[in-house]
Known about the structure:
The chain has helices spanning 42-52, 66-74, 94-109, 128-141, 154-157, 174-177, 219-230, and strands at 16-21, 36-37, 40-41, 58-62, 115-118, 145-152, 160-162, 168-170, 182-185, 191-194, 202-206. With 240 residues, the chain is α/β, with parallel strands linked by helices.
Amino acid sequence: MTGKHDRGAPLGKLETLAIIPARGGSKGIPHKNIHPLCGKPLIAYSIETALAAASIDRVVVSTDDEQIAAVAKAYGAEVPFLRPSSLASDSAEISGSINHMLQALFDAEGYRSDVHVVLYPTHPFRKVSLVDFMVRTLIAGRYYTATTFRPIDLLRCGYYVQGDCGALKPLHDHARFAGGSLYHRGYGTVLVRSNLFEPSSRYAQVLTDEIEFIDIDEWDDFYLAEEVISRGLYDFELCS
């Protein structure tokens, strides 16, 4: 996962932009991105972490929704413009909104970051030190992308495929994966991408804290997150 690359000498200070994509539409939980989670809108957790990270110079929110924009600004993020509705549908690729933000900032301000960090607001559990570590690792290793993964256990999850005559067989290939590990990409925790290096080398950080796996999609996810926060089970590292 963490391939052997020539890390070279760390580069000097680079301009790092945090982008938090938060569209207004949500089927499972209406206005999910600003729904209160233990006294704060869900999106506030990602904004606060981004603002506290020493590696990040600027924090912007990409949204098509005026209410989300107002909440984001109240918590210290910039919303320089609204995302076009065509980039905020259920079928729209998130890469489209990220590219739109990068291009629009350049067109409007001549602003171009060296590195951009994508933080999904549906992943509230994200340590400040993890964000800084991922940015530092990408820069020092001259990686094009650095992202987080979570380990998975196909046997425990019970995934199957349908074979001949309708029979089911385990998806896990014992011979191929014996003694190895399997991983699932956690899109919303931390994704860092560089504008400086060729789109080839990548770095993967495997998460070990199961709380960081929480991705809020349905009400049960929200209730779980509320329990974690109300019981003080997670340190966001917002206080020095």
